[in-house]
Fold these 2 entries.
Entry 1:
Amino acid sequence: MKISVIGTGYVGLVTGVCFAELGNEVICVDVDKEMVDKINSSITTIYEDGLEEMLKKHMTRGNLRATTDLREAVEKTDVSFISVGTPSGLMDYIDLKYVEKVTRDIGKILKDKEGYHLMVVKSTVVPGTTEHSVLPILERYSGKKAGKGFGVAMNPEFLREGKAIEDFMNPDRIVIGGIDEKSTDILLELYKDFKCQIMKTNPKTAEMIKYATNSFLATKISFINDIGNICKQLDIDAYEVAKGMGMDSRISPKFLNPGIGFGGSCFPKDVKAIVGKAKEVYYKPAILNAALELNELQPLKLIELLERNIGFLKGVDITILGLAFKPGTDDMREAPSIKIITSLLMKGARVHATDPKALNEARKIFGEHERLKLYDDPMEAVKKSKYIMIVTEWDEFKREELYKGKVVIDGRRVDEAKVAEYYEGVCW
Ligand SMILES: NC(=O)c1ccc[n+]([C@@H]2O[C@H](COP(=O)([O-])OP(=O)(O)OC[C@H]3O[C@@H](n4cnc5c(N)ncnc54)[C@H](O)[C@@H]3O)[C@@H](O)[C@H]2O)c1
């Protein structure tokens, strides 16, 4: 098929490259010219294992390219996937301005385009967006009727950063929320080689499945952190408790690691967005609000524990192992490291931070700060201080020699750190 993917961030670039791998002809579109130029030079703008190799392969083959020219991309393809950002807006309501802008622009292009075109929303959008916002905008700007001149579908993305290609190629399920049979059938054809379950539903339900999934996983993390905080007070190892719980097949061990909470571009904003959507229908989701509230302060438990051990942190050198919100990515959006470092700097500490992939992101976030130094080599970073906080569980930090003779406060259960002179975990 001929496919255009609009918005080439984490989801869009992975989607474009993977659809090319599946034998389609793909045009990626972004407003960011620098990003487009890099993609056309086979350079990925994000870190994701295996992505650059696949990008190179399809650039060389000629079945993938990037452009800033939306009109050309839509005119030359049959299906467009929207994968622009859907950040938090005012009072945590979802901000749909990027989705609406692309939709208006595509609507204008469809006005002049001959033949049928399918528009697929892959961005995470609150229930009702595809049918009550995207569809009417397309109709208004194209002057055509949905279902006749063009089709519309919602196809949520469930990939995890750090495992994005693996997840895209081998998903647990694919959810297709088409407005009609024709829209659904085109996506079924596109996904025909996938071995997983494919669920057909309406767009609103597809949208809600994505939010319900992320809200459940975020709540599971906050739940085990809640249990972990109680365990800490009772001198019980929360990891042992989680292990025992996870053996129950109704519960499963996944997303059951007590620690310093969830971050990233999805869980925090998506839970907030569905809480915001619930407000519109006069409902206050008690469990989701509690999951968010617990997550707010959980990263700062590392600081609380260190203060309990050594008192004031003013003038103290502290090493932070890990900046990305999880291993395998350079993404620092809503990363616990941001809260921890900001708080340490506010308290007057000197921070020495290291991460295998996220140093450039950290430079963008923190800029120049005289009490914050960033290091490529974790060994260099740990040499600068007696006190270490483990924030991201990269394999690079699973080395005993980093911790010998140190005071370690661990937010991620890195067993190798237990050789430290003093070791304490956030929930154990
Ligand atoms: N990151 C994830 O792990 C993940 C997983 C599943 C779903 N999602 C959802 O997918 C969507 C995209 O997320 P992301 O992390 O890839 O975002 P991102 O911020 O990394 O990328 C969005 C891209 O869209 C581009 N863009 C904005 N307006 C545009 C326009 N008018 N035309 C063309 N390009 C435009 C931006 O320049 C940017 O490159 C969001 O709704 C997100 O919630 C993300």
Entry 2:
Amino acid sequence: MFGWTGVFLNVDLTRNKVVAESYDTTLALNFMGGRGFAAKILWDRLTPGIDPLSVENNLIFAAGPLTGFGLPNSGKLVVAAKSPLTGGYGDGNMGTQAAIQMRKAGYDAVIIEGKSETPVVLHIRDTVAEFIDAKDLWGLNSFETEAQLKSLYERTAGIVSIGPAGENLVKFATVVSQEGRAGGRPGMGAVMGSKNLKAVVFEGYNEIPAAYPKSMKELSAAGYREVMTKPNYAFWKRQGTISTVEWSQENSALPTCNFREGVFDKADKIGGFAMEKIKVGNRGCPQCNMTCGNVVKGSDRKESEIDYENIVMLGSNIGLGNLKQIAALNRFADELGLDTISLGNVLGFAMETSEKKRVPEKIQWGKFQETKALIEDIAYRRGFGDVLAEGVRSAAAKIGHGSEDWAMHVKGLEISAYDCHAAPAMALSYATSSVGAHHKDAWVISWEVQFGRKGYREEKINKVIEMQRLRGGVFESLTVCRFPYAELGFELEWYTKYLHAATGRELPFNTLIYTADKILNLIRAFWIREYASNWAKDMDVPPMRWFTQPLTEGPLKGAMLDPLKYDAMLNKYYRKRGWDERGIPKKSTLKKLGLSDVTKELGNYVKLND
Ligand code: SF4
């Protein structure tokens, strides 16, 4: 096999055993890598209904057939498991040297099951894996953990770890690498913590087999050059995703005070140009010349790698308009191993709940010190922090008193940083994403704003589906970064050329889209198998706030979503996906996608329509 290594590494932490397992070309072609492999493995191996934080869950690190070849923006892997936050399929991608080293060690995926009796570090060096006592590392933050491990291994080693949030099973704890590159929003860090696994160190010293190595090298160099010729390249290097703050403000899409509003009166203090005044450098994923992580010094004088999502969720969404303080909160969250998007959402929820006097705690908007203290309480599950550590869905259910009305999530995953009072397509994208409310699968809001944001027309549904297949299916399974395509217009043909050089196969884009659809339907089946009789169409509906509480400020004052029009849009979306009126894939759809075995299994949990 070329491109893929053809090997998964199975790690059993209960028995301290590792077994390398070969897989065949059919699996590779059917599921491609990254998210595709993770979905297939979780579907095949997990018993439905398991507790995500039990020994029975599997934690998967999976890469794709392009990972490790030195191609632009390809230094990523997917970390996946059944999510403790949502109860469904959970994953996230992260840019890390670990992705490259895992592939060079000879593995396309590492699948971790069981639980170590005591804290442990898993060290994988080519064919040798060892379990190292991590009692001295337990309790350290993710930056300290990586620094200590770095001093023990080769400079090229790739390290992923968890901080105290993962150890304390905070439901939105992430896995962290390279001081700020985090992955696995739906609690992948908590799954790692539940296994007593503090870190994984990857070292690989093999060549990954490419069908046409010379052509691979040439394409790689040409790809880097091409990225740099794109008109927006220079500005992207200056501001990365942060220029979106100004764009969102202009378009009333900037989450403000727990998504109550879409404009923030201090937006100019936290946007791209404000950031440039305090910027000290760029950081990024390995093998990337777009390096979108902007490094600034926070109010704590420590370096913090910031982007649009964390600035907004820890800034305007909690009423904080001081960029240096936001940067300090961001670094603190990364050190603790907390997902910054969910964290900002949870904090906003707590501030609104306090303001409405539904809890005795006094938590005010935009207060830096109080917020920092609350973040620490969440990571260590102290007091009210323990309630918030469960995520907004659970916290609202526990607090009651109508707080569900301002709990901003879909399927339990907190919304990322785009307000959708006036963006029906983006709301549909959040509502039907594979992991809950995440923007990464189908970021359609800029297209929607450009082409008319108020309508619910068919074109919007088509765009959401197109983007879900491309971004959530193809990119997440090749495990390459979507930004060259999405932000600079890097042409998709590059990826078919890369795939040809890596695998020796012609894999045209329509084949990749078909594979993506297969993967997305398998993930849908996973959710439905887990929720079974509790599965309901309202799981594909965005938060009620967007339907019932209009914007009260800015140029779109009065805007909100229309529930009947949204429902009609969702019905059409289902039809186009080949799903029935409950949002469950039809037998004919699964058959068309080569998932007939899924039909049989899923039929044990819900009635399937033809
Ligand atoms: S553009 Fe940003 S997210 Fe994408 S690979 Fe580069 S550094 Fe990573």
